[in-house]
Design brief:
Oligomer: single chain
Number of strands: 0
CATH topology: Four Helix Bundle (Hemerythrin (Met), subunit A)
Helix content: over 70%
CATH architecture: Up-down Bundle
Order of helices and strands: HHHHH
Radius of gyration: 17 Å
Shape: globular
Largest sheet: none
CATH class: Mainly Alpha
Length: 128
């Protein structure tokens, strides 16, 4: 049975999620995935490498969703920005493969996600 403070937190979280803008939700997902990538970036044990692989998988899914949305007919972003998002999604897939093959670390993906978060935060602050 949940205590009253747990129920209140759950209700607040549900209300907060329902009120969040699409940009705020994108920011939140980027933030969570990027934190997971950062936490597991020095994967020296199989367990940590598994956590890194799972975060990489979720990151590719996120970028695939963004690219599909950007390529869609109803997308209102500028055509150049839409093309850049699709291109970046391809880059993320390739860089992820390199990280999984241990040719490089996830720092470039972390930096890219952080840049996207700055852009999402700036757009939200400007009322976009």
């Amino acid at each position: 049975m949940l205590d009253s403070s747990t129920q209140a937190r759950n209700a607040y979280a549900t209300t907060q999620s329902a009120a969040a803008t699409p940009r705020a939700l994108e920011y939140q997902v980027f933030s969570q995935i990027t934190a997971r990538l950062s936490k597991a970036k020095d994967a020296e044990t199989p367990k940590v490498f598994t956590q890194l692989a799972e975060a990489l998988h979720d990151n590719v899914k996120l970028w695939t969703i963004l690219a599909a949305d950007a390529a869609g007919d109803g997308n209102q972003l500028a055509p150049t920005l839409r093309a850049q998002i699709v291109s970046l999604a391809g880059f993320v897939r390739g860089e992820t493969k390199r990280v999984l093959e241990k040719q490089t670390g996830p720092e470039t993906l972390i930096d890219l996600n952080t840049s996207m978060m700055r852009g999402l935060r700036g757009a939200a602050e400007n009322g976009s």
